[in-house]
Amino acid sequence: MSDAHRFSGKVAFVTGAASGIGRATALAFAAEGARVAILDRTEDALADTADAVRRAGGEVLVIAGDVSEPDHVEAAVARVVATYGRLDIAFNNAGVENKAAPVHSIELAEWDRILDINLRGTFLCMKHELAQMVRQGGGVVVNTSSGAGVRGVAGGASYAASKHAIIGLTKSAALDYAKQNIRVNAVLPGNIESPMMDRFTDGDIQKAIDLEPVGRLGKPEEIADAVLWMSADRGAFVTGAAISVDGGWSL
User: Fold this and answer.
1) Do 134 and 182 form a contact (C-beta atoms < 8 A)?
2) Residue 183, H or E segment
3) pTM for this one?
4) Which among 205, 225, 228 is positioned nearest to 215, based on CA atoms?
5) CA distances from 245 to 68, 144, 147 (A)
6) CATH architecture label of 11-245
7) Distance between CA atoms of 244 and 94, rounded to whole angstroms?
8) Which pairing describes strands 182-189 and 139-144: parallel, antiparallel, or unpaired?
9) pLDDT tens digits, residue range 79-123?
10) Exposed, middle or buried: residue 137 (CB in 10 Å: 0-12, 13-18, 19+)?
């Protein structure tokens, strides 16, 4: 249920915001009163998300950057703080899927690509976000892991490894900052209607639907609802959690 004032006065930073879960979550934060900073690799990719936020009457800061590049991430967080004076919520969502292959066939460059974006990128974002939250006295971080973060995936070792590691990173950070009014959690999406899922299935979405016990794909907005709950005061006693929103896929 939407509450136009739930995040009034808050600043939310969303990575991977050009499409899918990131776009839906940026729009949801804006609809509930937050000022939103959105990051993806190019400003062109973010144009549709930014326009949708503005059409809804929200305020948006567009930042082009690559989460696997330390300078890009440091500059992005600094720009959010310079523009809005603080950073209350960070949703570290940027990520990529792997090219399906058994472990012995994975090229090192492909392994590095997945880990650099999914895991290194999440760590770099957290490093700078958390430093700011410590300075200001509190905040919330939500990381995107996956159902593949709690189970194996045939042909998906690099992706599963990155998403398992994000859960460990999330739980450790939650303990590091628990006494500093900072909560750190992870959301674990299943098979979601998104451009990533289209690429992963080569357009044969039925293959992904057949894997879902509930018989359908999830919607990006359903993941956004979970992220907003974890970021809001109603989730104030939740930290270090890895919350599955996957239609039972990971059971």
Assistant:
1) yes
2) strand 182-189
3) 0.95
4) 205
5) 26, 11, 8
6) 3-Layer(aba) Sandwich (3.40)
7) 18
8) parallel
9) 999 999 999 999 999 999 998 899 999 999 999 999 999 999 999
10) exposed
Helix (H) / strand (E) containing 15: strand 11-15
Active site residue 159: yes
DSSP string, 198-246: HHHTTT-HHHHHTT-TTSSPBPHHHHHHHHHHHHSGGGTT--S-EEEES
Note the pLDDT tens digit of each residue in 33-45. Answer: 999 999 999 999 9
Provide the 10 A C-beta neighbour count for residue 172.
12
Chain position carrying tokens 């939500």: 142
Which residue out of 7, 13, 123, 159 is catalytically annotated? 159
pLDDT of residue 1: 46
Nearest-angstrom CA–CA distance, 215 and 247: 8
Per-residue burial over 51-70, b if 16 or more Cβ lie within 10 Å, else e, is ebbeeeebebbbbebbbbee
Residue pair 226/245 in contact by the 8 Å Cβ criterion: yes
Taking residues 157-173, what's their average pLDDT? 98
The dihedral over CA atoms of 180, 177, 123, 152, expressed in degrees to the nearest 10, equals -140
d(CA 138, CA 63): 23
Side-chain-side CA neighbours of 102 within 13 Å: the count stands at: 1
The residue extents of the domains of the chain are 11-245
d(CA 48, CA 211): 31
